[in-house]
Predict the structure.
Amino acid sequence: MNLQSNPKVVNNRWIAQNERENKKAIDQHVNVMDLNQELIIEQEEKKRYEGRLDRLESKLSEVNPKEFEKKMELFKEIQGLKEAIVEKNRCLFLLNKSKRIIEASILQMNQLEKKVFYAHRYLGKSLVEIADELNHDYGYIRTVSAKADKKMK
């Protein structure tokens, strides 16, 4: 049986066409790869802020005590950077927490749920594409994906 005559493939392609037309069918979940990339970006930004903070603090110690306005400008910039670093730490904490929750939830999934979750969230494939690849019905893959999503909560 070729792919063109396979009823599951034909049905899945029809469903894919309807998905494209129906904006509500578009998946609204954040891709897990986006979470990892965001984590890397936030860590790099924090390092950049800390480097800038070190440079400003050394510059502050070199400023003549009589240059009050320059010292105040540096002090304000240092305070702003310290606040930004605190915010980055909070953001990194939340991203790491989300990542740990996802990793713990993945351990509770069965093999098919893991495959579907990985293909959908990590690779960014649509459920229709996953159904075609795994040779399952779209409705079944959608149910498996929903079960995996419930385990994530």
About this structure: DSSP finds six helices and no strands in the chain. The mean pLDDT is 81. The helical segments are 7-21, 32-62, 68-107, 111-122, 127-134, 138-152.
